[in-house]
Specification:
The chain is of the alpha/beta class. The chain has one domain (about 1-265): Spore Coat Polysaccharide Biosynthesis Protein SpsA, Chain A, CATH 3.90.550. It contains 12 helices and 11 strands. The chain has helices spanning about 10-25, 65-70, 70-80, 80-85, 110-115, 135-140, 155-170, 190, 215-220, 235-245, 250, 270-290; strands at about 1-5, 30-35, 50-55, 95, 100-105, 120-125, 145-150, 175, 180, 195-200, 225-230. The strands form 3 sheets. It has a 7-stranded mixed β-sheet, with helices on both faces. Strands 5-11 form a two-stranded antiparallel sheet. The chain has a two-stranded antiparallel sheet with strand order 8-9. A hairpin with a 4-residue loop joins strand 8 and strand 9 (about 180).
Length: about 290
């Protein structure tokens, strides 16, 4: 079994911590990192313990156009099908896990599923009437691309080629237009391809999108907590400490070599401006009330 992740240099500490958690529970598994960046830009003080494959070595058709069309976040996600196809040449079974994830126990059951399936996809939600806004999940995608299993087969090859063609050309994050980088394309997979397994395991790929319906303490007590994805949420202290062991603060400030900064991404300046506007609005309300 080979487990891989995809990241840019500013997420490299996350990827290494993921690798450490995989190796803790699966010392016999291979773990590799797909880097959507220039390996030469990795600071000399970082010694990555896991093999790194730079995106340029994949010779992705149209990659130069992708690098100027997509944001940093989009291009990392959109290169996922190409790295999957590359790594699947090295193994019979493959698992992709988001770099912001930590594995808490063995996930060998995925190997058993891949004995009978070509593709494993993971739903964002599992329980009806348990999430406060099920409609919101319809916009981002029924299936989450942060945990995917693949078996070497003709069907999987067809899937990756189709997926990659779409992320190469239509990998924008614009949910008003039915686009969410690599993720929304997974909606079609159960209907378009054979041997697709929908992984209904509550302890896999827990994130901010499904935390309202997942009881982490109960999963822990039942030994069913497999992985948590910390993407776009505050890092707990133990995870932050592990990241700091790999100079996360320094790495996170490095601008990726490919893609561009998302103009809609919140920045410190935008956050301060938003708070000032809120305060001004509150002052206006108080003054209006006082004057009246």
């Amino acid at each position: 079994m080979l487990i891989f992740t995809v990241c840019s240099i500013n997420q490299l500490a996350n990827a290494i911590v993921l690798g450490d958690s995989v190796k803790t529970h699966h010392p016999d598994y291979d773990f590799q990192i797909g880097l959507v960046d220039k390996e030469s830009n990795i600071p000399s003080f970082i010694q990555c313990p896991y093999p790194i494959t730079e995106v340029n070595s994949l010779n992705i058709s149209g990659f130069e156009e992708m690098s100027v069309r997509y944001t940093h976040e989009e291009i990392v996600a959109d290169c996922k099908p190409f790295f999957a196809a590359y790594f699947l040449q090295k193994t019979e079974k493959l698992i992709f896990i988001d770099c912001t994830t930590v594995v808490f126990q063995s996930i060998s059951f995925v190997t058993d599923i891949l004995n009978q399936s070509n593709i494993i996809i993971t739903p964002q939600l599992l329980f009806a009437n348990a999430h406060p806004d099920e409609k919101q999940i319809l916009n981002s995608g029924i299936y989450h691309s942060g945990f995917i299993g693949l078996k070497k087969s003709e069907e999987t090859t067809k899937f990756l080629k189709w997926w990659g063609n779409n992320t190469r050309q239509k990998g924008f994050k614009d949910m008003c237009k039915g686009l969410n980088a690599d993720q929304l394309w997974l909606e079609h997979v159960p209907a378009m391809f054979d041997g697709v397994h929908i992984l209904k395991e509550a302890g896999v790929n827990i994130g901010y999108w499904n935390i309202p319906e997942r009881n982490i303490n109960q999963l822990k007590s039942n030994e069913k907590l497999y992985s948590i994805n910390y993407r776009d949420r505050a890092f707990p202290s133990d995870y932050r400490e592990k990241l700091n062991n790999y100079s996360h603060k320094k790495l996170s400030k490095i601008t990726p070599a490919y893609g561009f900064e998302d103009p809609n991404r919140p920045t410190i300046g935008k956050t301060i401006a938003k708070k000032i506007r809120s305060v001004n609005k509150l002052v206006d309300v108080i003054l209006d009330k006082f004057v009246s």
